[in-house]
Model the fold of this input.
Amino acid sequence: VDGAGAKTLLPDMWERARPLLAGAVAVTLDETAAAIRLLVERAHVVAEGAGALSVAAALRGAGGPGRVVCVVSGGNIDASRLAAILAGRTPD
Done:
């Protein structure tokens, strides 16, 4: 997903980040694309992949019972990538 994830993490940063990751959720590219589609079609909001991750997790039910608030940010998505997602495809 553009704007999220990395192949490496600095070793000293891992020790700082690990306590914050308890309960973290990973979502698939398909789930992220579905969240982007939902945001555009229902809320008229264009979000980049990283900005839609919280919605993807919420759609999976990862927020638990009750109401869930998702922070959606970043509209830096390539027009051709957005078009592919809106056409039902999941870009690489």
About this structure: The radius of gyration is 14 Å. The first helix runs from residue 11 to 17. Helices lie at 11-17, 29-43, 53-60, 79-86.
